[in-house]
Specification:
Layout: H1 3-13, H2 18-25, H3 29-37, H4 44-54, H5 58-63, H6 81-91, H7 100-124
Length: 125
Amino acid sequence: MDFYDRVKESLRAKSISIKGMCEKLDISLETYNTNRGRNMMPRLDVVTRIASFLGESIDYLATGHTIAPLTDVPNWQHLNEKQRHAIHQFVTLDTKTERFEDLCEDIDRAYRRQQNDNLANHVHG
């Protein structure tokens, strides 16, 4: 299933035609169909408008990944950038091409670093 299949599926669930979507979003139906026929992704601004219109994430339409937005993680705002990066890596891990053990070690290092930073700040703060 590719981008266009996922768009079509989402449109079908909402009882909207591709033509109707293109008219509503002021997207050229001809260009949409040409890109689809060539298996080319639309421009990012078009993908963004389509995703917003359908209520789908760009990531889902482009890749089929159905993970929750990372901002939904409890206390996300309290994590530092390294922790956010580690969580993002974990959630988007492709176990066919990446070693799970390496990622776990990275997450453990980030966690220990944060704990040490918290301890140092508590002692000195």
